[in-house]
Amino acid sequence: LTGDAVVVRTGDGGFACRLSEGWLVVRPGPFAPVFSEPELHLLDRVGSFVDLALQRCRLFEEHARARRTTEAANTELQTLIYTVSHDLRNPIISVLGYLDVLGREHAGQLTGDGEHYLQRIQVNALYMQSLIQDLLELSRIGRSEPPPQAVPLGDLAESVAQELRALHPGCRISVEGTFPVVWMSELRARQLLTNLMDNAVKYGGDEGK
Is the model's pTM score more than 0.90? Predict the structure, then answer.
């Protein structure tokens, strides 16, 4: 079929309506051997609806393909996070073990700020272990979202504050006021409070103020 017209006559006496891709062809039959002008306008309108339906089918297919691609990428990312965090657990456990032995058997031999440095190394190693555990939990979240539970924000904020006090001994961190009990994932709540309070410590001014 050729031509620039929207509706053209076919060689067998039928008509074809131009679509965005291809043609909608109506062939003559025993009950409609001849097409009149109103029927040609009706064919044009039907062609518009068919064209719209085909476009929606293509969009739906593209959306489904994009969703499958995104889901596959997320699965690969979750697997990578799980593998990396799982492999990091053994080295940090070994570091903590050696730090414990060093603290119990050789703490008296440390001079100057040696004991203080040993404590700081242990605090940071524990914090790294917590981050690795959070990565493991994050990889599991992609597979199955943890069920919500009652989370007392005041107790959780104080727990996060204790961790930050060990990391920033020169900064005054206090948790005051009344906090509600929220119904959500405890892991997500801890991540939220940790990010908020850690940013406040880093960007809230000089330490000690």
Answer: no
